[in-house]
Each structure stands twice: as C-alpha cells, then as structure tokens.
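Support case: user asked for a sample of complex input and structure output to validate their parser. Sending the pair below.
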Amino acid sequence: MAPRKQQEIFDATLRLVAERGYDGLTVEGVAERSGVNKTTIYRWWPSKAALLGAALVEADVLGFEPPDTGSLRGDLVALVEAMAGLLTRPPARDIALAALGAAVRHPELDGRRFFADRFARERAVFERAVRRGELGGAADPMLIVDLLAGAVWVRAVFRGQPVTGGFAEEAVSAVLDGVTASHAGR
Amino acid sequence: MAPRKQQEIFDATLRLVAERGYDGLTVEGVAERSGVNKTTIYRWWPSKAALLGAALVEADVLGFEPPDTGSLRGDLVALVEAMAGLLTRPPARDIALAALGAAVRHPELDGRRFFADRFARERAVFERAVRRGELGGAADPMLIVDLLAGAVWVRAVFRGQPVTGGFAEEAVSAVLDGVTASHAGR
C-alpha cells in the first residue's frame, strides 16, 4: 500500500477513535472516512485493534523526532515540551487520550509497542549525553523518560493543570540535579 | 447515611465500573448490588458521575494514609510502593484503571478532586521533610509527587512492566539526588 494511503487510513482511524471512542470505532467507519475498501484494510490489519495499534505507532499525526539541541538538558526540555503539546493541544490531545485510554483497557491493541517504539527513538538523546560526558553509563534512560513523561501525564491529564511556563525546565532540573541538591540551599 | 452503608455504595460503584466500564455503570446497578434503594442513592448523589467521583475520593478500597517513616526518602519510597500496589494489585488495579480512565473521558466526574485530595494528604510528608531540613522551602512538592506517581503510571500501566525490585528506591533516588549527581561518578 502506498505510504500516503496508509497515512490516510491511520488518520481516519485516530480521528474516529477520538470522536466516537474505541467502542464506536469500526473498520467500516475507517473505510468510509478514508475512501479505502474495507476488504483492503482487513487484508493489512486483521482487526480494529491491530489497525489502531499500528496507527498509534506509525501515524504522522502522533509523529515524533527526538530532539538534538546539543545538551542533555536542552534535549529533555524539548522532549517534555513535545509530550506536553501532545497531551494538551487539539487534535493530538483528543487522539492521544482516546487511543492511550483504549490501549489501557484493551491489551489486544498492544499499546506497549507504542511506548517501546518511542523509547527506541529517545535512546539517541541519552547515547549522545553519555558520549558528551553529561550522564554516567549507569544512568537509566527509561527511568528518566518515565519520570518526565509521567509528570506531564499526571499534571496535564489527571490534574488538568497547565504544563507551560517553566514546567518543562523545572521537571528536567528536578530529575537531572535532584530536588535536594538544587533546592536545599535556597 | 451511616458511614458503613455509604462505603457499601462506594464499593458497589467501584466494582461495577471495573466490571462493566463507565458506560455499563448505572445507579440502578449500584442500588441492586448494595441493597440500597435507588431513590436514596439519588438523594445523596444526583448522577452516576457524582457517585463515582465521590467513590474515588472517599472509598476505603482506594484509601490512603500518608507514610511517616522518619525520613523523606523513606516516606517517598513508601508512597511509590503504595501507588505501585494500587496500579498493579487486583482488585484495586482494575478499579483504579476503570475509574481514572472514566475520569479522563468524563470531566463531569471531577476526577481532579481525587488528585487534589491525595495531594492534600501527601503534603504532610513534605512539611515534615522541610522541618527536618531534608528539603528546602522552595522545593515543589507537587512536582515531586507528579514525577514519582507519573513514573509508576507509565511503567506499570502504559508499558505493562514491573514496578518492583528496586524501582521505588531508584525513582526516589533519581528525584532526590538527580541522575547526573548520583550516576556521573560511577
């Protein structure tokens, strides 16, 4: 299938799940919205779960390029800002919340693949930081990512509070420098 | 209403949302399961959203007492372990995922009240730490909580990976000491 056609299918899938929820998502609906024959879609993705799982990982609308600002701190701030944008700006916000919510409730969607794929791309940030001597080789990149991504999720999604105005810098500083180290002397 | 009766209603509410999802939750179902008249339930909580929102904050099954181990590090490790238990051990896990998922999709549930209530209780941990001189007065307790709670959420719920075997200690150490400070020398 042509990549452009595939993106149209993913786009229709994500927009439908955002509009109607996972229960309202159907391959028929995706066929109608994308103008691609239902049988063709089923040939590539055997179920709506497989289709949504693939869309999460591969759709351009949730696309992600790891930052390369020249410093670990700059890269992590850019990462947090990208996550904050994804979870607060429509239409990405509605798509991400609907798709991730469905992934939590429906293991057959294999939402873990989305996080594994993101982490594989984020690794570059940490490899460069180790090469530059900003991070020891024993540091745990997944822990760093999970602390930062998790803080954005809790603050923006669960608390419904802003993740702008210094939030990214403060979160990154807490994880890089420690809250006791950076605050105790004030 | 007697506190015990109220807890039976909350318990029925949370178990029903875990079994049937928010769409399958009805005040009628809660009345049947708890043996309390539907009209009585409506008199206290005007909608299923109000009922579930109250159950989230007040139900004993999601109950939470802030730890007091004598040190900030010990308290935070205990907090992370409590959150990890909540998000991995049935039945609390299924209840928490269903109720928090519903709160994200249905703002009328006012899920923010749950997080505000938890944070109000967690504050004691940080007030004691400041008094003991373990934390500067400028440190941001909500940021610390959101980093740690968020990491548990991402690791356990999104990645479906274990949050045992040193996870709590490592996450707390990252936030208290910083990943550059604690790892760079290794």
